[in-house]
From TrEMBL:
It is found in: Cytoplasm. One of several proteins that assist in the late maturation steps of the functional core of the 30S ribosomal subunit. Helps release RbfA from mature subunits. May play a role in the assembly of ribosomal proteins into the subunit. Circularly permuted GTPase that catalyzes slow GTP hydrolysis, GTPase activity is stimulated by the 30S ribosomal subunit. GO terms for biological process: ribosomal small subunit biogenesis. Its cofactor is Zn(2+). Zn(2+) binds at C299, C304, H306, C312. Residues 117-276 form the CP-type G domain. One of its GO terms (cellular component) is cytoplasm. The keyword Nucleotidyltransferase does not apply. Binds 1 zinc ion per subunit. This is Small ribosomal subunit biogenesis GTPase RsgA. Monomer. Associates with 30S ribosomal subunit, binds 16S rRNA. GTP binds at T165, K166, S167, D168, G218, A219, S220, G221, A222, G223, K224, S225, T226. Its EC number is 3.6.1.-.
Length: 372
């Protein structure tokens, strides 16, 4: 095995192990956390060190039936040591949270429900940092992007936290901006941070206390790598400046995907998580727009679309200025996207949407014919 940044052995609790994980571990197996996966094998961290473990027959069979059962970074697993000294990954422990791409997975008490065909990008993430720069090129923070990433974060089951990064660039407009961001993220902690001045970095550390595991979501250039380096207290990630300055190669030792941080806690950073867009976030959208959901309870019609229906409490709130119009537009857009994403994986829903389009097209044609 190549040189590793991980120490030779691990205190399991520093990797996030706790009593309820212990209770779920099948007898006779060795507890380990998946740091990275390759085809058919995982790099795992356990009390005895850092190993490669191939998947046992049970894991292979389960994964063939449903890819959600494939081990992924962040998973807790049970290993068996084979006679020849190799390790085999025998069992996955139930996931507390999961980022799933392209499937209709639901977290239930026992872990993920088994009826999905999605791919799990990361498991057992406790905190999702949504990073949005106070200033990005010449634009200020994009509230719509924050809402979109929050929907995804809620959907994973983890706790979202919004970080307005590069706060040093905002100047006097920061308090106003923070107010706007807070209004786009009801029920979510919002912090201004600067990896440059160190402002707010301790608050981020605080969210990781008790060895919690986090992911950082955000657009390219949001400052994710710089933040992870600030949290680790060392250069674990290659940042844009490094990439621009001398191209590839300097930080090639940086390839682990589960990153233990100097001050405690862990970060999961994978290309899949970096590229994650908008998947399966139906319920997540409801949580991001809890203010609209609350207003909607006072609409005259239970199925109000908050468009032009009489007695719509949401429109009324836009009109009296309590709900920003931008937010209603954003809700509309994300609702449509979520429905479309769900329809890609749900044949019945797809059929229903197609039928709806057929009816609309027919009506359009009819009204065209009827025109004098
Ligand atoms: N002024 C200021 N600049 C920052 C701060 N954090 C990051 N930057 C700069 O922003 C640029 C992008 O930072 P990265 O950390 O590489 O951004 P990233 O989100 O990891 O980007 P990708 O790897 O493309 O996803 C770099 O030039 C950083 O030096 C900050 O707190 N303040
Ligand atoms: Zn309404």
């Amino acid at each position: 095995m190549s040189a590793s940044r991980f120490p030779v052995s691990h205190d399991l609790s520093s990797l996030g192990w706790d009593d309820s994980h212990a209770a779920a571990l099948p007898d006779g197996l060795i507890p380990a956390r998946v740091a990275r996966v390759d085809r058919g094998a995982a790099e795992v961290l356990c009390a005895a060190g850092h190993f490669q473990a191939h998947y046992g027959a049970t894991v292979r069979r389960a994964a063939a039936a449903d890819p959600v059962a494939l081990p992924c970074v962040g998973d807790w697993a049970g290993l068996r040591k084979l006679a020849e000294g190799r390790f085999e990954l025998e069992a996955l422990l139930p996931r507390r949270t999961a980022f799933v791409r392209g499937g209709v997975a639901r977290l239930s008490r026992g872990g993920l429900s088994g009826d999905s065909k999605g791919q799990v990008l990361a498991a057992n993430v406790d905190v999702v940092f949504v990073a949005e720069p106070a200033l990005h090129a010449t634009d200020t923070a994009d509230l719509g992007r924050i809402e979109r990433l929050l929907a995804l974060a809620w959907e994973s089951g983890a706790q979202p936290v919004v970080l307005v990064t590069k706060s040093d660039l905002a100047g006097e407009s920061l308090p106003f901006l923070m107010g706007e961001v807070a209004a786009a993220a009801p029920g979510v902690d919002v912090h201004a941070i600067s990896s440059l001045t160190g402002e707010g970095v301790d608050v981020v550390h605080g969210h990781l206390a008790g060895t919690r595991t986090a992911v950082v979501l955000g657009a390219s250039g949001a400052g994710k790598s710089t933040l992870v380096n600030a949290l680790a207290g060392t250069e674990v990630m290659e940042t844009q400046q490094v990439r621009a300055a001398d191209g590839r190669g300097r930080h090639t030792t940086v390839h682990r995907e589960l990153i233990p941080l100097g001050g405690g806690g862990l970060i999961i950073d994978t290309p899949g998580i970096r590229r994650i867009g908008l998947y399966d976030m139906g319920e997540g959208v409801d949580l991001v727009f809890s203010d609209i959901e609350e207003l909607a309870e006072r609409c005259r019609f239970a199925d109000c679309g908050h468009d032009s229906e009489p007695g719509c409490a949401v429109i009324a709130a836009v009109e009296d200025g309590t709900l920003p119009e931008r937010r209603l537009e954003s809700w509309n857009k994300l609702q449509r996207e979520a429905l479309w994403m769900a329809s890609r994986t749900d044949a019945r829903l797809r059929k229903e949407l197609q039928n709806r389009w057929k009816i609309i097209h027919k009506e359009v044609r009819k009204s065209g014919r009827n025109r004098p």
